Amino acid sequence: MKKLLLLLMWCAPVFAYSQGFQVNLGGQKQIGMGHTGTGLLQDGASVFFNPGAIAMLPQNSVSAGISPLWFKSGFNPTGTNDKYFTKDRVATPIQAYGVWGPKDARWKFGMGIYTPFGGLTDWGTDWVGKYAVQSLNLKAIFFQPTLSYKLTNALSVGAGFVYNHASVDLRRAIPLADASGNPGQAKLEGTGKGYGWNAGIFLKTKTFTAGLDFRSKVDTKVKNGDAIFTVPTSLAASFPQPNTFNAGIPLPSTLSLGLGFYPTNKWTVAFDANFVGWSSYQALAFDYASNTSALADTYSPRNYKNAFALRTGAEYKYTDKLALRFGGGYAATPVKDGYVTPEVPDANRYYLTGGIGYKLAKRLDIDLSFEFEHLFTRTQTNIETQLSGTFHSNVYIPGVALSYHW
């Protein structure tokens, strides 16, 4: 019975995947420049990076892009030479923006659809940590209508309402074998929603630009998700079917400061600093609709800490049609020792990016980007699952977007 209770506690980190994997893939130009954009005036992705800049954009536009993401991780259990690796699966964060305002008006309206949190991890069904996780697919898609207003020719402000649609599919093995020796499985599937806001201010001078942006915490609730348990027939009564669960998690707030400099008419240099309020995530509770002595509601401490990221990047306009971009940065993990899980074995990380922008036609642009992230090796023993070993992980993210402007 103790093992069955532990099983339900092991289900608790399901939403922690996003804690160490705030993808921030807001726009292809910005990705190519090391994820800088809070203090820049570039394109419709300002809906995400800084709504205050939208009113300063010289043209109306629509754009759409995608950033396929490969998360590659390996695990070496403590005291062994064994190694386990995640399978090749691809997450698909998206970005889509529209910006419109009358000519010479002081205001513009924007709409954004983007994926700031989520990812995809698959360790397979037969690895040493299968009782912690087998696979996880998590998505948080934000919808953000936005209004921006130019107070003066140098200063503008903007704000947008955020609606989050989230989905999760988690699978874990259960330490209860059938007659053939195969372990059981727990599968949690559900969708949720949450609300928040995004506001910013933008300053434009003859020598530099600057921006300040705040994206609020988004409390996301999953209600009536499906809890599906595959167990030996003799224990089926302890895991009533059908069953549902409710859970929630606060996707953290982010405060960003950005600067842009223009040494020549061909060069743009940018710096961003981000402070992420992960400390709002202190615990995770699961409430099951049907409980038994083995299937109790759970409360799992997470005790995350606030974290920061520093980013820099540059763009060089090689010709009137071709722009070259590059950048990089460093991000500190919010996950304290003892709370690292294989959903995403988070650690401090650095990343390098590059990109190309090309004018296909007078009003049509294509932007390409590529990002490499390296998570520093981290040896951990999880306080709940007692899974102990060393994680080493990398992330590979190509991206492409098309933009039409008028």
From TrEMBL:
Q: Name one GO cellular component term.
A: cell outer membrane
Keywords of this entry: Cell outer membrane, Membrane, Signal, Transmembrane, Transmembrane beta strand
Could you name the domain of life of the organism this protein comes from?
Bacteria
Q: Which Pfam families match?
A: Toluene_X
Q: Name one GO molecular function term.
A: long-chain fatty acid transporting porin activity
Where's it found, cell-wise?
Cell outer membrane
InterPro entries according to UniProt = OMPP1/FadL/TodX
Signal peptide positions are 1-16
Q: How does it sit in the membrane?
A: Multi-pass membrane protein
Q: Which Gene3D superfamilies match?
A: Outer membrane protein transport protein (OMPP1/FadL/TodX) (2.40.160.60)
Q: Does the keyword Signal apply?
A: yes
Q: Say which family it is in.
A: Belongs to the OmpP1/FadL family.
- State what protein this is by name: Long-chain fatty acid transporter
